[in-house]
Every structure is written in structure tokens, then in C-alpha cells.
Amino acid sequence: MKGTYAFVYGGYIGVGIGVFRVDGSDFVGADHAGCKYRGTVSKDLETGEITVSFDMFVPAGMLLVQGTSPLEFDTTKTGSFTAPPDFGEGEPFKVYIEPGYINLMVKRIPDEYSTRADGIGVDMQPVGR
Q1: What is the pLDDT of residue 68?
Q2: Host H or E run for residue 41
Q3: Domain range annotation of the chain
Q4: What is the pLDDT of residues 23-69, one digit of tens each?
């Protein structure tokens, strides 16, 4: 499991992207919206399924893709989910992360991108015509 992974997620009101890395059982990640993830991963040796337990830092004013109203203060949510072997290798799977379900796609990427797991930003600009 050790490596760097990109992820795309979608919920009731939106989508997002991020990067995480796994080193041993440690899980560290960030997404374009400013959320940061810290936790652990473990692999079921019989099924290959991966259990991720995490704390998710959510900055004030952030809308979650599941459709919640933004909070006026920073908060940390705790959760866990089970992923298919190899995190699905790019195939979508559904997980429940409070307060609702999201669709998640994960794909291994080159380790040269591992620093993005500490925080990333996305700047979307219109393209000239």
C-alpha cells in the first residue's frame, strides 16, 4: 500500500480532488478545498480490503459535498471506511463519511507528487477564446 494516490470524490452537491500518501500504516492527505486528513490504514490479508480510519480537518466556511451548511468555525471530523483492494485502482466505490455517502475514485500516482498530500490548491481560470 505504501505510495502516493490521487482521489476524486463526489456527493449530493459537488465534487472534489485531492492527494494522499500511505507510509506503513500512516495516512496523510489534503484536498483542493483545504481539508486535511490524518489517520491509519490497515489491509485485510484474506480479502485485500483496506480500512482507513481518519481525522478530517474542515476549515470554517467549507461546504461538504454531502450537502451540509458550512460551519462558522474550523472543525475536525472523525471517520472510517473500507476500500476495495488497491483502493479500487481507479474504479468508483461508495463510502459513508458523516453526514452522508460519497462516491470515491482512487488511483496510484508517482511518488514525486507526495508533497501534495500536505496541502494543495487549485486555481481555475477561464481559457481565452
Answers
A1: 80
A2: strand 36-43
A3: 3-114
A4: 999 999 999 989 999 999 999 999 999 999 999 999 999 888 888 88
Question: Residue 92 has which C-alpha cell?
Answer: 468508483
Looking at the chain, how many residues does it have? 129
Long-range Cβ contact pairs of 115-123 (< 8 A, separation 24 or more) = 116/4, 116/19, 116/30, 117/4, 117/19, 117/20, 117/21, 117/28, 117/29, 117/30, 118/28, 118/30, 119/30, 119/34, 119/36, 120/18, 120/19, 120/30, 120/31, 120/32, 121/32, 122/17, 122/32
d(CA 2, CA 25): 8
In the block, cell 479500487 appears at: 88
Predicted TM-score (pTM) of this structure:
0.90
Give the integer Cα–Cα distance in Å for 98 and 118: 23
pLDDT at 129 (0 to 100): 65
Neighbours of 91 (CB within 10 A): 12
